[in-house]
Here is the input.
Amino acid sequence: MSAVAEQPRPPAARHQPPPARPSLLKRLIGSEHLAGWMFVAPAVILIAIFFLIPIGWSLILSLQANNLLGSHHYVGFANYNALSKDHVFRSAVGHTVLYTVIFVPISVIGALGLAVALNRRIRGIRFYRLAVFTPLVTSTVATGILFLWLLDPTFGLVNYVLHAVGLPQQQFLQSPSEALYCIVAMTVWGWLGFDVIVYLAALQGIPEELMEAAEMDGASRFSRFRTIVLPLLSPATLFLVVWSTINALQLFDEIYVTTRGGPLESTTVIVYYLYQQAFQYFNAGYGSAIAYVLFIGILIITLVQMWVGRRRVYYTS
Amino acid sequence: MATIASLKDDTFLAIDDPPPARRRRLPFSPWHLVLAPVAVVMLVPLVWMVILSLETKSEAANFPPVLFPSGLHFGNYVTTWNSVPFGDFFLNSLAYSAATVAGNLLFCSLAAYAFARLKFFGRDVLFVVLLATLMVPYQVLLIPTFLIVKDIGMVNSVGGLIMPNLCSAFGIFMLRQFFRTLPVELEEAARIDGTSRLGILFKIVLPLSLPALATLAIIQFMWSWNDFLWPLIIINSATRDPLQLGLATLQGAHYTEWNLLMAGTVMSQIPMLAVFLIAQRWFIRSIAFTGMK
Here is the structure.
C-alpha cells in the first residue's frame, strides 16, 4: 500500500456515493499485486527451475533406479535400503564425521586466538592480517596442488623440514592413516582467514568502555577475556561453528584434487562418494539417496547446534 | 597511519607514566612471537608456489627443495600457457563470473525491492519458501540440475554453467534486509512526483545501496571464480573449462612437472589475488558481513 492510500480520509468521503469502479484489468495494472509479481518474476522463475524443482526431483530420483541417460524406473526405498548396508558409504560417513569433528574445533578456536592477536595496533599488523587472509582467496584447486607438493613424500618441503630437525619422514597423503589429517591441515590453511575475519569484526564491535571499566575494577586480563570478550563473541562463535560444520560435511574439492578418495578409500567422504556414484558409475538414483541422507543429516546437526547454542549465546540486543 | 599514531602514543606514555609493574622485556610487542610464525606458515605455500614456477624441471624435483633457482625460468609460463588452452580458461571464467554477478545484482535487486517495499498477494509465503531453499545443501540440487540443463541442451557449454547461478535466495535476502534500512520518505516523494517503481529502484534505491551491492558482487564473484564441482560435472571439453577446472586438467597433464604445474597455478590465482589486494577492504567487509547475519 502506498503512503497516499494510508492517509486518513476526510469523514465526508463516507457519505458520498462510491466512485465508479474501474474495470478489473485496470485495477490490476498499476496495483501493487501486479507490480510485486512482475518484480519477483525473474527471480522466482530462476529459483523455481534451479532450486525448488530440483529439491523435489531429487527426492523422486532417490526412489528410482536412474542411469542419468533417460532410463529409469521406480524402486521404492531400495536405494536407501542398499545405502544402509553399503560399507563404503558407512566408512564415508565415518570419514566425514571424523574430519568435521577435527576441522571445526581447530579452525574456530585457532581463529579466535589469531583474531585476538591480530586485533591490536602493533607494527606490521597489516602485513600479518594480509598473510592470514590471503589463503582465503586461493582457490580450493590451487590449495590442493600446493599441498600435494608440500606433502609429497619424496620432494616435499614438509618432509625436508622433518628431515632437517631429525624427525622420521612421513607418507602424508599417500598413507591411509595420515591422509585425512593432511586434508584437515590443508583445509584449515585455506579457510582460517574466513573465521578470523568474522571474529575480528565481532571483536571490533566490543565497546572499549566496557573493557576499561572492567580494568578499573581490577579484573585481570584473563578474567576480562573470559567474562566480557567470550560472551560478546558468542553469536560469532555459534555462527562459525554452524557454518564450518555445514561446509565440512560437504567437503569435496580438496579431496578430488589431492587423493580422489584414496589411499584405500581412507579419504572417501560423503560428497565424493555421491559424485562417484552419480557421475562416474551413473547411479543417479543412488546418488540422490546419498544427497538426501546428507541433507537430513546436516539439517539435524544444524538444528541441534542452534538449539544448544541458543541457551549459551549472549545477545546484546 | 594507524601504526604511526599508536607508536606516538607509546612514547608519550613512556615519558609521562612511571614504568608499569610488568615491564616489557622485549624490544617489540610479544604478539610478534605468535604472529610471525603464523604468517610464515600461511605464506610459505604461496611463496614456494612462485619459486617452483621459476625453476627448471630438475630443480623442482630436487630433494632437498631448491630455494634459490639457478635462474628465473619465465619460459615455464609460456610452455604451460601453450600446453593447455589457458586463454580459453580465463575467458570462460570471466564469462561465468561476470554473468552470474550481473544476473544476481539485477534479479536479486528487483525481487528484493518488491519484498521490501511492495505488498502483493502471497508475498510472505513466497519469501519463506525462497529462504527455505537456503537450507538445502548444493549437492541435493546437483543431479536434477544436471538433468534440467541437459534437457535444455546446455550441457558442456558456458551457458549451462551460468544458467543455474543467475539468481540466489541469499542475494535476495541480503538486499531486502538492506533496502528496509533505507528511509522510505525519499521513495514516497518520488512516487508522488510520478516516478515509476522501476525508476525509484534504479534512480533512488540502488544508488543508496552500493555497499550492499558491492558485498553481493564480491561474494558471488569469489564463489563463481573458484567454483569447481558444478563445472566438473557440466563441462567435458578443455576449451570450455573455467580456470579452476582447467587447472585440474593441467594437473592431470603435468603430474610430475612441478615447475609447469606451479606456473599454471600462479597464473590461475593472479586475477583473484589482484582483485583482493586492490579491493581488500571490500573483501573483508563482505566476508565479515556474512558472519553478522
In short: Confidence is low (pLDDT under 50) at residues 1-6, 9-13 of chain A. The first helix of chain A runs from residue 3 to 6.
